[in-house]
Amino acid sequence: MAMDQARSTISKIFNGEPRSYTRFNLTQNMEGDNSQVEMKLSSDMEEEAEGNGVGEHMNHHPRPSYVSKSSQRSPRNICFMGIAILLLFIIGYLVGYLAHRKADKTYPSCAEDLAPDDGEDMAPIETVPSLDWSDITAMFKSKLTTDSIEKSLSDFSSDSHQAGSPGDEALANKLMGRFKSYGMNPWTDEHFVRVQDRPTSGTNKVTFQNKTYAESGFLSYSATGSAQGAALYAYYGQVEDLRRLQDLRINMSGRVLLVRAGKITPAEKVANAASVNAGAVLIYPDPADYSFERDTDLFGHVHLGCGDPYTPAFPSFNHTQFPPAKSSGLPAIPAQTIRASTAAAIMKGLGGDSPRGWGDGGLRDVVYKLGSESDLIAVEVNNVLTEKKIHNVFGVIKGFIDADRYVVIGAQRDAWGPGYARSTVGTSLLVELARTFSEIVAKTEFKPRRSIVFASWSAGEYGAVGATEWLEGYLSSLNMKAFSYISLDAVVTGPFFKASASPLMYDLIQSTLKEVSSPTNGSRSLYSEVAGSNWEAAVLEPMRMSDPAYPFQAFSGIPSVSFRFTSDKGYPFFGTMLDTKENLYNATSMNLLVLTKTAGEIAGQMALRLVHDHLLRLNVEAYSSTIRANVAQINKEVILLQSSGRLPKKLKLQWLLSAMGSYSRAASKLTFSIENSNLKDTEQCRIINDRIMAVERDLLSPYVCPLESPFRHILLGSGSHTLGALRAHLAAIKDGSSADTDLLRNQFALATWNIQSCADALAGSVWDTDNEI
Predict the structure, then answer these.
(1) Check: CATH 1.10.10.10 for 133-197+386-612?
(2) Which of 122, 496, 555, 753 is the most exposed place for a label (fewest CB within 10 A)?
(3) What number does CATH give the domain 204-382?
(4) CATH number for region 622-768
(5) In percent, how much of the chain has pLDDT > 70?
(6) Residue 22: in which H helix or E strand, if any?
């Protein structure tokens, strides 16, 4: 009765008369079942038939109520109203409580996600097992053995594997098989490149004093045809050598320069000669620098650049529509290598003065003279431009957290001849690192956070053609995902350790050397053996255009390192048919296997560190000192030139100095963020790593065309946009050249905004950028 009375009272509160059923849905579980509380608010079903429907409310006036006010406000009714309100409150509380419980079960907290309730059946959370760094390196070193390296050296040695040849393709297939056996799902990258080879019939020729010398060696990408002029001995053909000849008032226009091999690349020698309007260049190996037979042929290329020079800045895929373009680095004058015996015959017939300091060569029975205007010499180059199909071969060990971020380890596979030091050692070491890493990942708890890509390049002898074409083909994605490149080319030719690298990788190199044992004294670290008082001065060398890592660094903006065990004089057999196993063993004092294992440990531990740590081991503050050193030198030169009246006072450096400060502050702030970051926060680590990865890419100048200036890096690249070119411009003004104020202003502006943009990107979000400039 009490419940009936409550229903009646509630009905009267809401418009007088009781109506139909109302259901309250308390909970709804994941399976869709409903738990309901049902209240019947009408005790007399016949009352609905008396006209209280919606239609009657819309078409008729409501009936008058015959219930008196006194009866509505009786104590009994008030009591029933209180009971009804209390009942509604209890029902509402139950609805809210059960709904809250269901929400908690549907959306667990972070703590519950990491440590599920014992009473709940939840799927296990996938995690990446982590081993101590010392355990990882110990396993790596134990699996990389000299025995396994020796076997790979035997398997991948070949007497003939020039780019695009059957021997090159056979090695590529063998690599594919190895990578497949390691479970790496290998793939290939096919390119159709144009290279210049020696004449298909006959040889290139040099004629002097009515005697013709047929030369079997050649320089790819030389201008073809004939040239004739007076011979001129130009030492090594370096800029300072040619400047000395100019100081002697010697006109080099149209002359055929005879230069020694070494010091700089053939491409640089030819470019220097062309800059003084020489007619042709002959390059020979002087016995003072090369200890091989006088009739040994030299091979090389003279493209002042990397990649296929007939597809500059874009890839040579088969489906590419090739425009009529060619690299600005192709020479316009003929260039040819000649044997030492040919050089001796020519030098014996030269007249002119004896240059002071340039007569230190080893040609027998020869007095080194510059040559006179009457010493005419003719050069005929008949090289043939051909198209070759080349294959790059890849394998990958995928990361377990950031699989789309990867370090690339690469090695050249082709060579002019046996190429034992040039390519066999690097290729064998690449295979051994792939095998070792695959075994560690498959058989231990080590799971790399990021991926490792193993790459075997073809056409490296023509100027890193295979590697550069790959970079050009996938540039838009590579410089967002490939965070480092480690080169294994020519990694062992002597006992002394040297390296060329991005400043971002200096700290990584240093820490790795401290963890790797010396190949000559296993009780000492390699760092303690090579460092001395200043390890950077003892170990690091500038990265030049001929470096195999250069296109990664200066073209793609990927932090790169190439290192080598070398000798004081260098390895004399590069670019000859004498780069054999026997000669390399002799050059390394029979320690080839030990040196190769040490090189493998250096490359492997750098790669492991880069894929193991939560945050990339790349030091963004290292570029602060590099930028500061360049800007300080520029500032000093400008002040001196302004004080002497060679530059106008209105040329200000304050904005370049400000951009330098912006980068330093942004780098310091990022370092602070790294030091105070939560390594368990995967998303935070990824954001920081992306900022680190962007530094090298942001140092590529956006103001120059890659077609004309492919090496856009303002610190390590080449072209008028670089800080080096700005310094050279100021030096030329200091030496007497007239100042090109407009060009200087343009160089200052581009450098300033390039550095400032890099600083802004390094700062992170747009609201964190440094706007003090």
Answers:
(1) no
(2) 122
(3) 3.50.30.30
(4) 1.20.930.40
(5) 82
(6) strand 21-28
